[in-house]
Design a protein that fits this description.
Blueprint lengths: L1 H12 L4 E8 L4 E6 L4 H22 L4 E6 L3 E7 L2 E10 L5 H22 L12 H9 L17 E3 L2 H17 L3 E8 L3 E4 L6 H22 L3 E7 L3 E8 L2 E8 L5 H20 L2 E3 L5 H8 L15
Antiparallel strand pairs: 1-2, 1-5, 3-4, 3-9, 4-5, 6-12, 7-8, 7-11, 9-10, 10-11
Helix pairs in contact: 1-3, 2-6, 5-7
């Protein structure tokens, strides 16, 4: 089976722009790979990182066909195997890969991989591999792009405040998007600090929170693997497309019928509106979360009976 799997993965790897193809268990263990990676540890890093995204997408959509994460330096593509939820493909590519060729090649090869797994594994999953903290750090250090510098990975969250004019402008832009793209199921902004902007009187908080979580998980993966900033996430199911764009201190989320409009045209239409949304949010008031001064004095004050201690992580 190993040779047949490798040949099948190699067929996908031969597409111009594709760098690596890895077959991954849903629990993060790599099964087979083809590409330019130099060590097994690097293959493990891709598998374990993309496994987190796979889990979040499954939580939101149940079953899905593929998920695409795009940055300015690369694309990361996850594809579910047909009728086999225990495995998926993780594919890393150059930024200008031919997505149409990739989708066509994937259609036949995914079925082939599912057939090989059913024939040879018979439902038995290989054991998980355990990594210590030092081993994990050593794997992550393999993605360092500059010598002699120590990298620190931190994510900060700010609180955004919108005035009436900004809120109305954002709602107008969302209305224009809704009117220009047919068969939209939901369109909204999920911003840091719990701010929701939508056309309805209220937004489904679960959808907003999960959209934010999906983008946040994808952002961590892209930063770890490519040291790059995530731009868009697109998840496609049998019936819908879920598209997420990064905006200042939040995400733009769109749920639309898959067959309502061609993907290329839809993304072209969205580009103008996303730029306008980013412009408005750049002008919004943003503050860093902080403990009020009077509360700091209360929490940090010493007492003979033993006071409360305020603990926080170092930035």
């Amino acid at each position: 089976m190993t040779e047949d799997l490798h040949d099948t993965l190699q067929n996908i790897k031969m597409i111009t722009g594709v760098e690596n193809v890895i077959l991954v268990q849903k629990d993060g263990l790599p099964v087979a790979s083809a590409g330019v990676w130099f060590s097994k540890d690097e293959v493990f890093a891709v598998a374990s990182a993309t496994c987190a995204i796979f889990g979040v997408a499954r939580l939101i959509h149940g079953t899905f066909k593929f998920l695409l994460m795009e940055s300015n330096t690369s694309k990361v593509f996850l594809a579910s195997l047909p009728n086999d939820p225990s495995y998926f493909l993780a594919i890393t590519t150059a930024p200008r890969v031919n997505l149409a060729a990739l989708f066509i090649e994937m259609k036949d090869n995914l079925s082939r991989i599912s057939f090989l797994l059913r024939q040879h594994i018979d439902g038995r999953l290989p054991p998980l591999r355990s990594y210590s903290h030092d081993e994990t750090q050593r794997v992550l250090s393999g993605f360092t792009v500059s010598d002699g510098e120590e990298n620190h990975y931190t994510l900060t969250r700010s609180l955004i405040s919108l005035d009436r004019s900004q809120s109305l402008t954002l709602r107008t832009l969302l209305k224009q998007i809704h009117d220009s793209i047919p068969s939209i199921d939901s369109v909204f902004l999920a911003l840091s600090g719990g701010v929701r902007v939508s056309l309805e009187g209220f937004t489904n908080d679960r959808l907003a929170a999960m959209s934010f979580a999906l983008h946040d998980s994808s952002e961590r993966v892209v930063r770890t693997l490519r040291n790059s900033s995530l731009q868009t996430v697109m998840c496609e199911t049998e019936k819908t497309r879920h598209i997420i764009y990064a905006v200042p201190n939040g995400v733009f989320s769109l749920w639309v019928d898959k067959n309502s409009q061609k993907l290329g045209l839809m993304r072209l239409l969205l580009k103008h509106y996303i730029d306008e949304i980013r412009r408005v949010l750049h002008s919004a008031s943003v503050t860093k979360p902080a403990v009020p001064k009077d509360l700091q004095e209360l929490l940090l004050s010493a007492s003979s009976e033993g006071g409360l201690i305020l603990a926080r992580r170092k930035p």
